[in-house]
Amino acid sequence: MRAAVAQDLTGIDGLTVTEWPTPPEPAAGQVLVRVHCAGVGPWDVGMLSGGFPGLAAPFVPGQELSGVVEAAEPGSEVQPGQRVYATTFPTGGGLAEFALVDSARVAAMPAALDFPEAAGLVIGAGTAYEGLIDKGRLRAGETVLITGAAGGVGSSAVQIAAAVGARVLGVASSGNHDYLRGLGASDVFDYHDPEWAAQVRHAVPGGVDLLFDGTGGQTRDSALTTIRDGGHAVSIIAQAPLGELDRGITGETFAAHVDRQRLDALSRLVQAGQLRPAIEAIFPLEHVHDALARVAGGHTRGKIVVQIAA
Ligand SMILES: NC(=O)c1ccc[n+]([C@@H]2O[C@H](COP(=O)([O-])OP(=O)(O)OC[C@H]3O[C@@H](n4cnc5c(N)ncnc54)[C@H](OP(=O)(O)O)[C@@H]3O)[C@@H](O)[C@H]2O)c1
Q1: What is the structure's pLDDT at 54?
Q2: What pLDDT was estimated at residue 192?
Q3: Which residues is 18 bridged to in the sheet?
Q4: What's the pLDDT score for residue 51?
Q5: What is the distance between the alpha carbons of residues 26 and 36, in angstroms, rounded to a whole number?
């Protein structure tokens, strides 16, 4: 089969598109998927540079995918011929014509989505759902500030928070502000403006109930000042976990675990018309370098997807 293979861990340039052994028939607890699309994100760039301990070259990257079930054991939740979406994190394998996936981490994809959209939803929306709903316990009527709001995770976070009935404040470059309003943000802020956090405190004088941090760094430091006393912060920046917080604010940094239950929850939001991934660009497998270079630029709006089959 054709696959993108990381021959070494020197970065995007270590990746070649080549022939690679087709995975074997699925063992118990596995499903073989004929891959149509694979989403890519900053984690792929990190993995290709050796940023994930335990990952050795050569390997096939690609941690989120959509496609059609090729083989599954009898009684499995998904059956041959079914359109599915899945995560293969952290072992990868999605940037190939066939991928073996854990049967607990694959689900029927929403009928309303095409293959690029479904692949682009898995990690971004799965992470946003876990952070906002399961960890952040966001409720209708609360306020949530989302940094990195126009990216792959943030674009879904804005929609999921709006679906909950929260007031959504999004932080992004000014060129993304109309985009964020279209996703459901009621207030938008530009992190390039040194006064942006003061503007948030002016918009929500008591402070926001929840911070969903998708950036870390200086933007997060400023965002922490906008949380109300006793509020909560969740961060997805594993390289820079949240430290000690003051004013009774609680916080946690987490690594997302996307499984069938979360994928099914995303599917319900899609079916209700409350969640739809925005795909910035689709690249053919032979142009996977261009896809990853776009991600590495750090200003993706929505998702970048690689198409393996039509
Ligand atoms: N813990 C987990 O389980 C988990 C899961 C998924 C992702 N992540 C991590 O979460 C981060 C976001 O992922 P993603 O897929 O959403 O990334 P992405 O699609 O590449 O989006 C990144 C966003 O960051 C914004 N940005 C760039 N520089 C910034 C700065 N200096 N300050 C504030 N914002 C800035 C950009 O916004 P503008 O274009 O508007 O400037 C862009 O939209 C990445 O570090 C990723 O590795 C962690």
Answers
A1: 85
A2: 98
A3: 3
A4: 87
A5: 18
Whole-number average pLDDT of the chain: 97
The Cα 187–Cα 101 span in angstroms is 39
User: Rounded to whole angstroms, how far apart are CA atoms 227 and 165?
Assistant: 19
Residue 151 Cβ contacting ligand 1 at under 6 Å = yes
Q: What percent of the chain has pLDDT over 90?
A: 97
Q: How far is the CA of 42 from the centre of ligand 1 (A)?
A: 7
For the CA of 149, the closest atom of ligand 1 is 43
For ligand 1, the distance from its centroid to the CA atom of residue 85, given in whole angstroms, is 22
Instruction: Answer whether residue 1 shows pLDDT above 90.
Output: yes
Q: Which residues have CB under 8 Å from 200's CB, separation 6+?
A: 145, 169, 187, 189, 208, 223, 226
Measure 77 CA to ligand 1 centroid, in angstroms.
33
Cβ 258 under 6 angstroms from ligand 1: no
Length, in residues, of the chain? 310
